[in-house]
Amino acid sequence: MLLAERHESERLRQIIKELQRHRFGRKAETLPEEQMLLGLEDVQQVAACTEASQDETAPEGRAERARKRRNNRGALPAHLPRIEVVVDIDDKTCPCCQGELHRIGEDKSERLDMVPAQFRVVVTRRPKYACRACEDGVLQAEAPARLIEGGLPTEATVAQVLVSKYADHLPLYRQAQIYARQGIALDRSTLADWVGHAAFHLRPLHERLLTVLRARSKLFADETTVPVLDPGRGRTKTGQLWAYAADDRPWGGLDPPGIAYVYAPDRKAERLFSHLAGFKGVLQVDGYNAYPKLAERGEVELAFCWVHMRRNFYELATAGPAPIASEALKHIAAFYAIEKEIRGRSAEERRLVRQQKSRPLADAFEAWLRAKLALISQKIKLAEAIRYALSRWQGLTRFIDDGRIELDNNTVERSIRGIKLSRKNALFAGSDGGAEHWAVVATLVETCKINGVDPLAYLTDVLTRIVNGHPNRDIDQLLPWAYRAQALKAVA
Question: What is the mean pLDDT of residues 71-86?
Fold first, then answer.
């Protein structure tokens, strides 16, 4: 009885520590890159302020400091237009003999200048023609197609609104405020109307991209919550954005990377079955219990994420002295050290190295986990962490026999960061339809980013092609990675 109470007390203490860390501690194992960059920015600002002070107090060293800056700043892109400013002397006579000076050279420097974003009005004139002899009709060129008939924006303007909202995470009301500073009165509902029209025309691209990803043999999957306004109850409900990603670059695969988001009003396993209908291959996931139900059909093999497994031990190790959890972290770190060495190699090379190095580590780690589980109370959090790992051990170690599989699900986790930023700034989607638009546009924006394509240029070009009747049979030409290939070919 006393032993059971002691174990229960220990379990409750661990829960309290975990809650305290969740409430007051860091929210991730490592600081996000953006947070570290914020700290670095402050350090650099202080250094620049100190240097400016030195320029004032010690002018004799100013030239040397300027020389160092010129050596480190790099070159400005050649495609930028150049505005030349000539700074010349007024008097071109020699101050000694009064003879005429002749030019022997020049010093040239370049600085980056910026013209603030500026609206302009495109005026389209369509002359009308009639015959004086027969007066039997009027001839006029057809009006160019528009994304929004009778509306104000060009396709480039709509693309800018989409990129600001889904890539730069600026809600529409903030965009309206920015435009108002330039004297353009655009109501938020007007911008929303533009977004809705664009999302309708882009929907076939979203569907096609998801279809292409389903044809791959290896995908990542994850999901995140999306608060959606529920007018009937006067509050928000919780929807889900499911994310499906493919990225074969770590093992030299030739297929381009892609990400597709699909909105669903709930997290039921049936949504997963619908989204991945026809998919056959390896699905890399976290521990959500809907994924094993998909695997039961026999066409999908699950590869589980080591980061999610590691997190259970990490939370215990940071909450206080936890020798077993800390030792587990060391075991896991050994696997990541091997992965760092083989990143970028072919799938077969990765498989061979894993067979040689990771397999013995995995066998030893599994035996160690089972031994420790037999020694501790089954009711404490540490036992839960160990059982989580052992119950998914086959999926966790599937990477050893397949060089295409990653150790974790970070590829799709990274793709969800942008969704979370937009969610933080916008607070919620206005409706299920708005959340579906979010999934459509975010899919194209994030796939552009992962393929090195400018989302603004891409969406402007794609919307223009669509409204001008781009044939649906050639829809693959409008996917982000195809746009990148066309751009590279045009440059060549």
Answer: 75
* pLDDT the model gives residue 492: 43
The top-scoring range by mean pLDDT among 18-32, 99-113, 393-407 is 393-407
- State both tokens at 486: 């066309």
Mean pLDDT of 14-37: 57
Q: Which long-range contacts (CB under 8 A, 24 or more apart) does 330-339 make?
A: 331/361, 331/364, 331/365, 331/368, 332/306, 332/365, 334/361, 335/306, 335/361, 335/362, 335/407, 336/306, 336/407, 339/406, 339/407
pLDDT at 216: 94
CA distance 42 to 31: 16
Report pLDDT digits (tens) over 440-460. Answer: 999 999 999 999 999 999 999
Rg of the chain (C-alpha set): 30
Question: Which CA distances in Å does 96 have to 39, 89, 103, 106?
Answer: 56, 16, 17, 21
Better-predicted residue by pLDDT, 364 or 64: 364
**Contacting residues for 481 by C-beta, under 8 A, at least 6 apart:** 256, 257, 258, 447, 451, 453
Facing residues of 228 across strands? 237, 429
**Composition of the chain by helix, strand, coil, percent to 5:** 55, 10, 35
pLDDT bracket for residue 488 (50, 70, 90): low
Which distant-in-sequence residues (6+ apart) come within 8 Å of 342 by Cβ? 349, 350, 353, 354
User: How does 128-157 read in b/e, with b if 16+ C-beta sit within 10 Å?
Assistant: eeeeeeeeeeeeeeeeeebbbeeeebbbeb
358-382 burial, b if ≥16 CB within 10 A, otherwise e?
beebbeebbeebeebbeeeeeebbb
The SS3 assignment for 14 reads helix
Show the tokens assigned to 95: 């101050």
Q: How far is CA 353 from the centre of its chain?
A: 31
Cα–Cα distance, 415 to 261 (Å, whole number): 10
Residue the block writes with tokens 């770590």: 250
pLDDT of residue 45: 55
